[in-house]
Specification:
mainly alpha
Length: about 140
């Protein structure tokens, strides 16, 4: 597929695809007879994986290291696995941190909702204040 189609299918811009090729995140594409890039559909799986790494916060330098190991193929599986295991632990720690933050937000929101409910309930049940007739008051000794 040509770069435009790859951009459309991957969600990356053509500029980003060229940049990723230039820095080594994507392998250089084969060229067709017109010298246009000709990508194999399997590149979409790799781009999706890179997007997952990016979304989970893997720094680009680590993505580049992983891509370089991937290009070497044989003998690099253990190193790639170790990289992913370390990254997974960072992601798990981040998820735990985000869950703690989410709990604080939920607690705060629940507090506001409870206060609003109490105010509505109070407003709905305010007893009418009745004034006693003027003659019913006790005379003060004085």
């Amino acid at each position: 597929m040509k770069i435009g189609e790859l951009a459309k299918r991957s969600g990356l811009s053509t500029h980003t695809i060229r940049y990723y090729e230039q820095i080594g995140l994507l392998p250089y594409a084969d060229r067709n007879q017109s010298r246009h890039r000709d990508y194999d559909a399997s590149i979409l799986i790799w781009i999706e994986f890179l997007d997952r790494l990016k979304t989970t916060g893997m720094p680009i330098r680590e993505m580049l290291r992983y891509a370089a190991l991937r290009e070497q193929r044989s003998g690099t599986q253990a190193a790639r696995r170790e990289m992913l295991e370390r990254h997974r632990e960072r992601v798990r720690a981040h998820v735990a941190e985000l869950n703690a933050c989410l709990l604080v937000l939920d607690t705060k929101i629940d507090g506001y909702a409870e206060t609003e409910k109490r105010m509505k309930d109070y407003d709905a049940t305010i007893p009418e204040r009745r004034r006693k007739p003027a003659g019913a008051r006790k005379a003060s000794a004085g």
